[in-house]
Each structure stands twice: as C-alpha cells, then as structure tokens.
Amino acid sequence: MKASWPAILDGETWEAMKAKLEDPGRTTTTGNEPKHLLSGLAHCWCGGEIRTNGLGRGRAGAAYVCTQHAHLRRNAAGADEWVALHITEYLDRADNRDLLRPPARPGVDAPALRAQAARLDAIGNRQARMHAMGEISDSEMRAGSRARKSRLDEIAAQLAATTTPDPLAEFRDQPDAAAVWATLPLPRKRAVARLLVTVILLPATRRGAGFDPDSVRVEPVTQ
After folding, report:
1. Could you tell me if 62 and 90 lie in one domain?
2. Burial class (CB within 10 angstroms; exposed 0-12, middle 13-18, buried 19+) of 158
3. What is the pLDDT along the chain (223 residues), one digit of tens a residue?
4. Is this model's pTM higher than 0.85 or not?
5. Is residue 101 part of a domain?
6. Residue 88 DSSP one-character state
C-alpha cells in the first residue's frame, strides 16, 4: 500500500540504496572476536587478565596490557610470534607425535599397529640401500614400495578410526607444524594455544626498543 505523503526517494533510487545497504560484502567488523592471539588468553604476572589496547594503528602497533594494573605493556605482534614459535616447536617434537591423540576405536590395537608401521619404515630404508648397491632390481624395488605403501595406508586408516574428534587434527603426522599454523584462521590458533600452553607476561628484563622474549613465559599445559 502506498503512503499518502510525497515520497522522499523515487522507487528506483530506493531499491538501489536498499540493495547496497543489504549487501553482505559491506560488513567490515566481526563483533567482539579478539583480533590478537593472546588477548584474553594470557595473564599478567600479577594474575590480571591481558587485553589488547588497540587494533595495531600507529608506529608502535597494538600492545597487550594488564586489565587490573597499569604496570605492563607488551608489543602484541612480538608476543604472538614468540608464543607461536613455542607452540609449533612443541608440536614438532618427536616425543609429541601422539600428543592428545584420541584413543583408537575399541578393538584396534594401536601400539601394535604403530610398531608394525615402524618396522615397515625400517624395511623401506633397507630396500633403498639394497637398491642403491644393486642387490635388488628396479622392479623389485617398486613392488616392495607398493606393498609397503598399501599396508601403511591400511594402518593409517585403522589408527584414524576413532569415536573422539582429534583436537590437533591439522597437525597430526605433519612434518612442519609452523607451515600448518600459518594456514589456520585466528580463532583456530587461539583454540590450539589455549589447549597447549599457558602464557604469562612478566616485567621487562631490559630497556629500549625491540621485543623482549624473556618477558613472555610460555609453558606447556600437557607434558
């Protein structure tokens, strides 16, 4: 039904403005989602929660500050990079290969399967040496490689069969945790950080410009 008063805009102009205002591409904010890795996740040495004091504008960039006392200020980008380095190096450790790995499906003997996979890897190394010395032919090498790969794929599928989601699925059995980390969106990075480490921002140990790594303590949650 048309209004009885004169229109401020003609119909064509109104439709064009309405389409522009309702265009999802105009959205430029993400609500209250933190924009830095450690905001609300790290704590100050005094026990206070850490928040970011800005969005990174200006020469100094965003900084982490204590919400309880005005006694701490850390460059957010430097602290984030330092913590990310700790996390990815921690995930790359050989003894963390099974870190937080969900239990295998009932009936699956995971230790036996992993031992079998290790034996197959050792066999592959021996075959490669024998091939290099001319003790086995190219066709024998290819046949052995196909058989080993087929069995290793079966073992991987059996080990992956679980009723519990893997909290470190992206990193599992990957050779370079830093490369995986670089592909993750910030919310996922924050979830992984919260899962793996506690972060305490400490008083600065030196004066002057530049990030002070000794002022950020990173400790693994799971040993």
Report:
1. yes
2. middle
3. 555 556 655 565 556 555 555 554 444 444 567 889 999 899 999 999 999 886 544 455 788 999 888 888 888 999 999 999 999 999 999 888 888 888 767 777 878 888 898 899 999 899 999 988 888 898 988 988 999 988 888 888 777 766 678 889 899 888 999 999 999 999 999 999 999 999 999 988 776 666 788 899 999 986 5
4. no
5. no
6. H
